[in-house]
Amino acid sequence: GTSVIAREFSPGKPQPTLIRDVRQFTLDSNKNTLEFDEKDEDDVADEQAKLEAERIRQALQEEIAQGAVEVVTENDRVVIHILENASFQSGDDTVRYAFRPTLKKIARLLETSNGEINVAGHTDNIPISTSRFRSNWELSTSRAISVAHLLLDNRRLARERFVVTGHADTKPRAPNDSGANRAVNRRVDIRIVVGEDQISDTVMSTNDAAAQQGDTQ
């Protein structure tokens, strides 16, 4: 007298439906897979930057030993720090003649790299006000332009890859609380985005800046 339905599906013992379980598992599985793949791509780019930095360090061993340049990585970017003591006179934007062969060497190294080349000038926090430079903004930008022009003497480097910026004292590497730290902050950075071909839309490239300057004259 007991039906099969009543015996197998007695009330009071609800079970989650098979459809609900499968849907939840599928969504979580896809999400985890996507996040894992994105992390892998970042790791590959970081590793490429480390390999590129090591190649540049090997080529610039002498300059690094002299304290003229430093080579570091920032995730998928290689950064060549050009320190002021070897490259510029204090308060001036003309690259020392003794340092120009180093820039030629760096330009040859950039031939085999890919991606955007950002040349950025930096100063310490001591203000400057001269007939040529009204502020550290102008000094840092002018120094970056000087370095970019010398790199572009190498005709194998495409102008479209270059972006020139000046940051004054807004991006220090060390606190401006000693002479040694301020010397570290006075620099021009050459930042290479490894494996990227796009140019940033937020800053002007050298050819765009030249075009705008021509329009205003």
Descriptive report:
- A hairpin with a 2-residue loop joins strand 1 and strand 2.
- It contains eight helices and five strands.
- 47% of the residues lie in helices and 14% in strands.
- It is of the alpha+beta class.
- Strands 1-2-5-3-4 form a five-stranded mixed β-sheet.
Characterize this entry briefly.
This protein has 217 residues and is α+β, with helices and mostly antiparallel strands.
Order of helices and strands: HHHEEHHEHEHEH
Q: Flag low-confidence runs.
A: 198-207, 209-213
For the biggest β-sheet, the strand order reads 1-2-5-3-4
Structural class: alpha+beta
Structural descriptors:
8 helices; five-stranded mixed β-sheet
